[in-house]
């Protein structure tokens, strides 16, 4: 099978549901953000490789969940294929919350904003968090377009998952700095 098909040469993309939509559509924006977020988390995994097996396994599971989330967004219409893609749900959100709680127990209290800085793995986690927030904004925009006030059930858990994931990446970044002996770089409000 060739990697290129030529079907997207006219500026459209095919979804798992069989629809072809413009590559500028908000749905494709959201899918592109999910793809970028999955890659950004891969960079974090590479940066911590061998140093923290538990965190590495969690991030691998998160990457897998993001693939499921993308499949949800690419199939949520009335496509029969959507039955194959369970997507993310409440159990995935609870798993993230448990991981956040576990990591946060080891961190000192934070009373000020902090600057993304420190150990390379931590900075990569902060970058992934920023990509996650953008992804969340695009999925919110998509949910508003589709159904004002009541997003499709599929997007409900996608939005919650992305919101928790940005929190997870934030505490993971702080933990990676702590583990490396790098203190939080706190924002110092200055007045001219």
Your description of this structure?
The structure is a single chain. This protein is mainly α. The protein has a single domain (13-179), classed as Hypothetical Protein Ta1238, Chain: A. The protein contains 5 helices and 2 strands; from the N terminus they run E-E-H-H-H-H-H. The chain has a two-stranded antiparallel ribbon. Strand 1 and strand 2 form a beta hairpin. Helix 2 (53-75) runs antiparallel to helix 5. The chain is elongated.
Topology:
Layout: E1 12-14, E2 20-22, H1 26-48, H2 53-75, H3 90-105, H4 120-146, H5 153-179
Antiparallel strand pairs: 1-2
Helix pairs in contact: 1-2, 1-4, 2-5, 3-5, 4-5
In a nutshell, what does this entry contain?
The protein has a single domain (13-179), classed as Hypothetical Protein Ta1238, Chain: A (Up-down Bundle), CATH 1.20.1200.10. Helices cover 60% and strands 3% of the residues. It has helices at 26-48, 53-75, 90-105, 120-146, 153-179, and strands at residues 12-14, 20-22.
Total domain count = 1
Q: What average pLDDT do the residues reach?
A: 88
- What is the CATH top level name? Mainly Alpha
Helicity level, as a percent range?
A: 55-70%
Protein structure class? mainly alpha
Catalogue the unreliable spans: none
Q: In the CATH hierarchy, what is the superfamily?
A: Cobalamin adenosyltransferase-like
Number of helices: 5
Keywords:
192 residues, mainly alpha, Hypothetical Protein Ta1238, Chain: A, two-stranded antiparallel ribbon
């Amino acid at each position: 099978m060739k990697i290129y098909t030529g079907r997207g040469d006219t500026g459209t993309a095919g979804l798992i549901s069989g629809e072809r939509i413009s590559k500028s559509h908000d749905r494709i924006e959201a899918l592109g953000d999910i793809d970028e977020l999955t890659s950004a988390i891969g960079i974090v995994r590479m940066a911590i490789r061998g140093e923290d097996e538990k965190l590495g396994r969690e991030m691998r599971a998160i990457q897998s969940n993001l693939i499921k989330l993308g499949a949800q967004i690419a199939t949520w219409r009335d496509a029969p294929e959507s039955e194959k893609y369970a997507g993310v749900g409440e159990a995935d959100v609870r798993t993230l919350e448990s991981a956040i709680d576990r990591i946060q127990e080891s961190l000192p209290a934070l009373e000020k904003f902090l600057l993304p800085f420190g150990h390379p793995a931590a900075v990569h986690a902060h970058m992934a968090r920023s990509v996650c927030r953008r992804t969340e904004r695009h999925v919110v925009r998509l949910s508003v377009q589709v159904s004002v006030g009541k997003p499709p059930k599929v997007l409900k858990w996608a939005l919650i998952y992305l919101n928790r994931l940005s929190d997870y990446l934030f505490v993971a970044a702080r933990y990676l700095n702590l583990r490396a002996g790098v203190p939080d770089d706190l924002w110092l409000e200055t007045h001219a």
